[in-house]
Amino acid sequence: MKSFDFYSPTHFVFGKDRENEVGKYVKENGGSKVMLVYGGKSAKSSGLLDRIEASLKETGIDYIEWGGIKPNPVSTPVYEGIEQGRKEGIDFMLAVGGGSVIDTAKAIAMGIPYDGDFWDFFTGKDPEGALPIGVVLTIAAAGSEGSPDAVITNDKTLDKNGAGGDCIRPKFSILNPALTQTLPPYQTACGISDIISHAFERYFTNTPDVEVTDRLLEGLVKSVIHEGKRVMEDPDNYEARANIMWAGMVVHNNIMGVGRDQDWNSHHLEHVLSALYDVAHGAGLAVIMPSWLEYCATHGGETRIAQMATRIFGCEMDFADPKRTALEGVKAYRAFLKEIGMPLTFAEIGAKKEDIPKLVEMNHIGDGVTGGFIGLDKQAHFDIYEIAARE
Ligand code: NZQ
Ligand code: ZN
Q1: Where are the domains of the chain?
Q2: Ligand 1 atom showing the smallest separation from residue 147 Cα
Q3: Class of the 11-179 domain?
Q4: Which CATH architecture has domain 209-389?
Q5: Distance, CA 320 to ligand 1 centroid (Å)?
Q6: What is the model's pTM?
């Protein structure tokens, strides 16, 4: 196991109706003038926003609304939010929504106190500081409620990039699983696909002797598969939703990723898909993650993928031919994704085979090699997209 620092200062507030306490937590964290960031329509139409605003008013906290944030969030509303936030003297960012809303709030939080262009933080510069951020989560998926990351697409260049730093970990995150009961089945399944991918990006490593985190990740994926099937059959099942919501947080606040190299290649391969075709991140991952696994299973990664196949999917280990076991595991994962209604091919998400050279270019890999588990050069990127584009 490698040496590591793990710092996760977010206060998690979990359970039914807990969003009604939001004013108290904003106040405790020094907020007096809040920018209330939300998405397209769900938070408004469900009445959630009214409840949040009532709690803020009750606590004597002033706020402005910053709504209309779309999935796969782009840079323009961030620039506008920074300008508006400065004008209004905003001192606290409150995100009510999923990853897209939270990441927009995080980007505005970094941008308001910064003299330069906020995009600097999405092209390698470490954040210098940020306004405090609070979250009321409405979808279990991206894990941004506990992560030090934000992902934004530059709407001029179509670069979908990440920024990271402990200053953008939320001060508090309110997780009421009942709020996710209004999600359409497709969005619930997208979340499940993203959560499992966040486990796999950590699981597939060459770092030896990481048995504790291996077993935590395996247990998490098995639970999410179990609860995922339950929730698809019974969307109002609070307990299944509660387990999935907590899984989405713990898998991505990195407690299961410490002490080991990670491999985020499949996220990078996906981010260009969601930037180009505006496909939901979890749906893009359902197409890419098994394609990446299939590639790795046939390019030197078979032993660890076979371990995943046996321990998670109960495949029988073929010691003479671990590649066969590994590919059985990939097949089982695809079958699960299909069962919950996820796409598996380019055609199902509207991606085009003839765009593959463009997609590879958008990854900006040049002559280099990316990844920690199996290094991927330009040709490997082509090969993985080809697998995904297979009918
Ligand atoms: O806009 P509204 O009307 O709210 O609809 C949203 C949106 O259409 C809907 N939704 C959310 N909660 C709902 C609901 N509909 C009904 N009832 C509810 N309770 O769901 C749709 C998707 O929302 P979005 O916020 O985009 O989902 P998600 O949480 O999957 O976030 C995806 C974004 O997060 C990024 C992704 O790349 C993508 O841009 N990621 C962020 C990460 C991070 N910050 O750590 C890590 C992830 O790997 C990921 O890359
Ligand atoms: Zn993700």
Answers
A1: 11-179, 209-389
A2: 45
A3: alpha beta
A4: Up-down Bundle (1.20)
A5: 43
A6: 0.98
